[in-house]
Amino acid sequence: MKIGFVSLGCPKNLVDSEVMMGQLAARGHELTPHADQADILVVNTCSFIDPAKKESVDTILEMAEYKKVGRAQKLIVAGCLVERYRDEIRKQIPEVDAVIGTNELDEIVALCEGTPAEANPFEQYLYHDLTPRILATPRHYAYIKIAEGCDHPCTFCVIPQYRGKFRSRRFQSVVAEATRLFRQGVREINLIGQDTTCFGEDHGIQNGLALLLERLAQIETAQEKWIRFLYAYPNKITQKLLDTMAQYPSLVKYIDMPLQHASAPVLKRMKRGASGDIFLKLLERIRRTIPGVAIRTSMIVGFPGETDADFRELCQFVEAARFDRLGIFSYSDEDTSASYHLDNKVDARAIYLRKRRLAALQRKVSRTRNRLLVGTETPVVVEGVSKETELLWEARMPSQAPEIDGIVMINDYEDQPPQPGEIRKLRITEAHDYDLVGTLLASTEPAANMTDGDTVNAPLVHIGPIPKSPSPTPAV
Ligand code: SF4
């Protein structure tokens, strides 16, 4: 059968899509990026905040249209929306033929082939290095999910409710998967989980993430490799972790550490603790241990009880912290979250204005930081021809994670033209608020052999314009 996948949400969800696609391909089914040619369409959904839920429902309805205008016989909904609204989806979107939760990934073959499903939706699922998986990312980078679930009590967050308790993969399983991916030509591995800094704790390993990074850095590869981890929890950043990052060149000098706020009273109501002063000391320790490290964080504005004074404190903190990257989220009042029951909700207009104000502040920080880079040289991984124009190529510095941080646009090169996936030096010639422009310098690498091994990258269905039929959006 021809099967089309739409993958929404975060890289953790993308890995789930890749695992489902891997199992179907292992059974001989074909994956297609063309929704109108698919016999079965699978929408892997996200539901952590309202906008994500809306996008998931809209996409399900868009794909449902292909049962009318395409050859799709079956529409399957997977992912986090299923975990939260399994019954509502079944009742309110009759076009959906089957649903599959995040702990039932092994059931995708049975669902597509119409054989009885066996998985226990309550058993905590986590793939391993022998699980068939097809990468949906460009050939030169991949995500490895090293853990799933979360035990932190953040009051605004509903993820633990449907991703379950924290559980790590086996140390050797991650090492085996990384070794195979590097051997197949992947240059950059991004370790992910809800909280990567807890890796190994449930197996009794102290400093598990630091030990894992050290082991991965020791994997022998013919070419330069990059290893990055995302989603660090602030009070889990140990000196051992920082020292390990400073010691190995292949461990990119990049820390993604959501802080969520800087006002102590707000952090207390979020059940995250700490304060802006504590975070500034942590940032100072990180920057002292790893010179030139790039730091990414994310903040929530409009959390219940956030006063003007709290917001001012957050702005002063962001100005002092000078983050390289900052994601800003509007508080989403999730009905199953603990914060849903808090008083002093902030009105939508105030949330909107605070988000705009903080974004404007960070734009200035980012612009100033980028201007200081003009004239410097940096390694970059070449992504490919720009999506905007064929006259430019896109690349990323080690301080730019895939898909969430800015890019470097290559408008000139010395010696050889750019090759997707190669790592090469670049001189920065121009700075914009978030992106940079530069000249690719002569290559010092042996010719990249990006095609060997069986890393066949799976084509995802990209949501595109299809003939619209006026069906109302049900209230999931
Ligand atoms: S650490 Fe992240 S995933 Fe875990 S509860 Fe907090 S916000 Fe949610």
Describe the protein's architecture and organization:
The chain contains 13 helices and 18 strands. It is α/β, with parallel strands linked by helices. The chain folds into three domains: 2-113, Methylthiotransferase, N-terminal domain (Rossmann fold, 3-Layer(aba) Sandwich); 141-371, tm_1862 like domain (pyruvate-formate lyase- activating enzyme); 377-440, OB fold (Dihydrolipoamide Acetyltransferase, E2P), CATH 2.40.50. A five-stranded parallel beta sheet has the order 2-1-3-4-5, with helices on both faces. Strands 14-15-16-18-17 form a five-stranded mixed barrel. A three-stranded parallel beta sheet has the order 6-9-10, sandwiched between helices. Helix 12 links the parallel strand 12 (294-301) and strand 13 (325-330). The longest helix has 24 residues, at 348-371. The chain is globular, with a radius of gyration of 22 Å. The chain binds iron/sulfur cluster. Residues 150, 152, 154, 157, 159-160, 194-195, 233 line the site of iron/sulfur cluster.
